[in-house]
Amino acid sequence: MEPSFQRDTAYIPDRITVDARDGWPVEAGRYRLAVARACPWANRAVIVRRLLGLEDAISMAIAGPVHDQRSWTFDLDPGAVDPVLGIPRLKDAYEARFPRYPKGITVPAMVDLETGGVVTNDFKQMTIDFSLEWTAHHRDGAPDLYPEHLRDEIDDVARGNYEAVNNGVYRCGFAGTQPAYEEAYDQLFERLDWLGERLSHQRYLVGDTITEADVRLWPTLVRFDAVYHGHFKANRSKLSEMPVLWAYARDLFQTPGFGDTIDFDQIKSHYYEVHRDVNPTGIVPKGPDLSGWMTLHHREQLGGRPFGDGTPPPPPPEHERVAPASNPAGGIIRSA
User: Fold this and answer.
1) Where along this sequence does the record place binding of glutathione (predicted)?
2) In terms of CATH architecture, what is 31-137?
């Protein structure tokens, strides 16, 4: 194990755009979004797809939570094969475009149904393009998650959160030396304290509505007590012991499009069963108690409008709903 965890961020840079600048035009029904409920990076894409109402334009393949060294697998589907892509492993889609693909098989990934090959796995650009390039397919009332006048601030806040928090929990969990771990730990909690102060007087991270900045931070927060506090030794405080961040995270959890994407059973199964270098036995802990996610948060007292001039998304399609037993919200959030 390397002393300090370094994430490989050299993703497939192709983009799906209106002008098809990379050869991939925006076209409803042409692409399938491959995700895993367990993965925080994929969770971002699932949330944005929900909020913008892109379910009819972009179908979704859901991999199971436990994969081997080769690939995420579609073992949740009948016959362990994705019913649209017709493949058992996401690796098959990567290698359909890049034979003997040498890098990690990651989610989220956009797959071209015409060729069966992966177009892109660049999760940062993917959600921006959902907002800016797929506008012709947005639902009526879709929120503006990347308003032009706030983009510099959104990018700046999200960049700091990525380094210290989103990737910071992994730098804690996969550190190979005590100094590397302690450096990541200190940076993580310094940033969480900064976020707590910022969010003590405003409901959302940037502006008075939900933006891309919230979508990027929240998947890490929702996994914090269930996984990162124990599994990754990010244990100065639980999220539920940080009052402002806990209320902020609950506010979003109870907002349509956020909590209804979460399957805590799959999240815990993935981290504790797959990361055998961190958890050699593969035992998945029974705790913690996750029922508190639906308690009152009182964040509405800070003002703000979750969807701006837009409206909440409708409930997810039946085949994409999370089982009630895996989510204290029962898979459907009924109020903003």
Assistant:
1) 72
2) 3-Layer(aba) Sandwich (3.40)
